[in-house]
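Why this split exists: single-chain examples teach little about how molecules sit against one another. For that reason, every record in the complexes split bundles all components of an assembly together and asks for one structure covering all of them. Below is a record exactly as it appears in the raw files.
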Amino acid sequence: MDSFLIAFQAQVLYDFTAEPGNNELTVREGETVTITNQSIGGGWIEAQNSKGQVGLVPEDYIEVRFSDSDTADVLQHTQYFISNNYNNNISSLCVLQASNGNDPWSVWNADSSGGFNNNWASNPEGTPADPWGSLDEWDDEWDDMKSTGGYAESESGESGAIQRGGTSMKISLNKFPGFSKSGPELYLLCKQLPKEKEKLTIYMGEVGPVWSYPDTQLDCVVADPKKGSKMYGLKSYIEYQITASTTNRPVNHRYKHFDWLYERLLDKFGSAIPIPSLPDKQVTGRFEEEFIKMRMERLQGWMTRMCRHPIISSSEVFQLFLTYKDEKDWKTGKRKAEKDETVGVMIFSTIEPEAPDLDPLDVEKKCEQFSRFTKAMDDSVKEILTVGQEHWKRCTGPLPKEYQRIGKAFQNMSTVFTSSGYQGESTLTDALTAAGKTYEEIAQLVAEQPKKDLHFLMETNNEYKGLLGCFPDTIAVHKAAIEKVKEGDKLVGTNKITAQEKGTMAKRLSTMSYALQAEMNHFHNNRIYDYNRVMQLYLEEQVTFYETIAAKLRQAHSQFTTM
Amino acid sequence: MDSFLIAFQAQVLYDFTAEPGNNELTVREGETVTITNQSIGGGWIEAQNSKGQVGLVPEDYIEVRFSDSDTADVLQHTQYFISNNYNNNISSLCVLQASNGNDPWSVWNADSSGGFNNNWASNPEGTPADPWGSLDEWDDEWDDMKSTGGYAESESGESGAIQRGGTSMKISLNKFPGFSKSGPELYLLCKQLPKEKEKLTIYMGEVGPVWSYPDTQLDCVVADPKKGSKMYGLKSYIEYQITASTTNRPVNHRYKHFDWLYERLLDKFGSAIPIPSLPDKQVTGRFEEEFIKMRMERLQGWMTRMCRHPIISSSEVFQLFLTYKDEKDWKTGKRKAEKDETVGVMIFSTIEPEAPDLDPLDVEKKCEQFSRFTKAMDDSVKEILTVGQEHWKRCTGPLPKEYQRIGKAFQNMSTVFTSSGYQGESTLTDALTAAGKTYEEIAQLVAEQPKKDLHFLMETNNEYKGLLGCFPDTIAVHKAAIEKVKEGDKLVGTNKITAQEKGTMAKRLSTMSYALQAEMNHFHNNRIYDYNRVMQLYLEEQVTFYETIAAKLRQAHSQFTTM
């Protein structure tokens, strides 16, 4: 990406006042700046104002502008830049925070798709069987369009969106500014932890540390997508109905609300719990209906995963999203959630393990183990996705075409035989026609099968790819904390901290480790269920598929005779 | 082929005395001539002797020589030339004879493979699953090798063979000189038909004119290929055991004996009955065993087809081949068969239809119908061969590789999950391993399936391709006869023939037509049986294939659990 060094002109969207000593740059709404360094990471961008002053500005606060004629040319590059840079940002953030930080899983940086935004089933030939469009398709033309610079509310939804029809592109890629500004020190060395009303208890279960699970698991249904419009019908969007199992009363939400929820969960829990990205905007269908169906299915998957998580599902913000009573209730709750200060690493301050403190060495061992496992699983998931994608292509492309040709060849032979003028030909010609049609039916079955089985195997692995993509960040916070604690003696020696503070640090690291272990156990538990379930579904459909073909062929076979 | 005009030096193998007025050239054994025109057709080649005299010489009588160093370069071209020229010869022959002759089925001329010598299952990557080698593999190195020019006997076997190890190549491509030298006039205008002991009767059956079928159908088994050697072990060959159902006593024959039989049958019956080529020499296996197995299978197929034919199976030469008592019996029979004068169109003189004479217009109509049908079936057969070949490649190439990768991906995931350190993992990991192994087994099944079903579908169609390739010649003889009879009035008017001879011609044309109809009905009857049978076999194996996979997957499915 080093070769991509276009100096963008950007417009400042909101006032930002620099904090002294942080290399930041104060900017005012409406001001134009030149971006001088995009690869700062951590949600920051280096910009130069008209006076020549250079400093860091939050990415969220600026908007790059193109002239109409430039847009098309640059868009493609930029898009690639964005998706790459997003990962670089997160990675470099982690590297900066972990004092012994080595590039966590460098393979992920090379992979432009972070969460759900891998286009695994894209088919260059674009057969109708392919429910995923190409990379450059965006849905913003008809869903959740925004006017240039028109951020009336401080909603951070729709970040990273590129308006195809318009001339504006907002670079807003750092999803968790709270997280980015605070290393684990903030928690480890905090003099006085805030008194939290709600405590997140960790118990010792059969498998080790576990979160406190509710008696009844929350569930919800995402359904009934409806097209709505605003601005006198000029702009349209899709609204989904979400019904929680606890209330059985539907609430409406647009994609941008899901995105808002995601941002809040990431802010609040991201340091302790991997929050998978929302289904990506890039996943679009060739047709509106297909797209809506696919997005809804993935939003459902995301919501189900959130509902299954004991901490997330019982959080105030998640409950608000699922059960708000009216518009006023929603707005009030939103404002409150946005003001929540227990975000980033401070989430650990609310965690109370009911178990003896762990030795830092054990903490490190555990952390290393999780790191190795999630990395290995990530590789394995990607292997399945690659293999599955190839298989999908073959099943929807050359293979059915071949069965079709076999079917046609048999039917053509039947037609030729019919013209023989020989008596007693009809049994054979009827049988040949039937056999030919059977192979045409098999072609159809083959082409439609991936949607029935491979689809779910791919979706599950895709979801896990997104989830596993969050672990390096979560684990990096822990590694940074471990390093900090390792420095403890030195810090005491140089009077940076007291011996008591060193003890507190070790204790808090233990708490962090319990949280990570509880989360890993939650992950393992879900993983075992998810993979059992998706493999059952896959193999069940595969069995039906092969049995259906066998039955059809048996029927075709019965028509031939050699009496 | 016009661009391929290398002037070959050729050695004369046998004395040949020119017939006056025929543009022929008298040559003597051992003489060297220069080939000046290879595209004469009809088994003739234009050559120039050392005195500068130019004339036609039978292709059979000369042998082209290369120096060792030239051989490799020229061989490939020559091979192509030969296979093309063979068809050209036959076609041009027919065109010459049929006075209104248009190029019968020009597509066949473009196709270099006449009979069995299409390498339909050749796989450029040469996977072990491919039982057919590449085009330039010849078996002569170890089977039926001949020394340069060393034709001690007048055996015409091994025609068209190119000796790879040696420096000699014999152009001997006109398989039926008797046929080539006599148009249908020889029979139509013959003053006095020879008195034949044996008559071939044609009856009117339910389907129209039919040959006289024996009560019991002859059958034979080709088995037990054994390596023999001659010239003190310097040259080796394979001897097959052929056992006729009538004698149940095995006789031994080498491939060259089959070839001799083929030549005799072609000489004698070729004008009335399509005699399919022997399995081609070019069909070789990668390994000796594979090759022998394949050749034996095809020789069996050829013999079975001959046994099924009422005229061929009861002919003296075929009975000799199957039931000769000892070497002396064989040699005597051979000599007698080679002296048989009822060859070419004269075979019609032995045919006695027990039905009223046909009107020449009806004869023409029938002939046209057969021509259309066999052409259409030829196209259809070729379509199946093309589609089948592609399917074969996919089933033995990319498809099993893909299933293998799916299997490996599941097993890799199982390995990763095993490393989780989480309790209660083993049920899932065992199930994943089993599922992975199942897909590896499926890969194996897929790769091996074509040998079990597609193979026979291909072989049958390949056989029919060879058989259909003989029809243009047979039909061309009839068309030439029809044209001759049409000229009847003009010939009477110019006193070329008498009115009585004209009547005889029409009557003999009727006999020819009955023979063609009987042969077509024989063909249809066999075709219906063969295609019913091969489709039954194919579909039966396909059903088993899909059911086996379904059962394996069902077993794999049962190991997953979501209790």
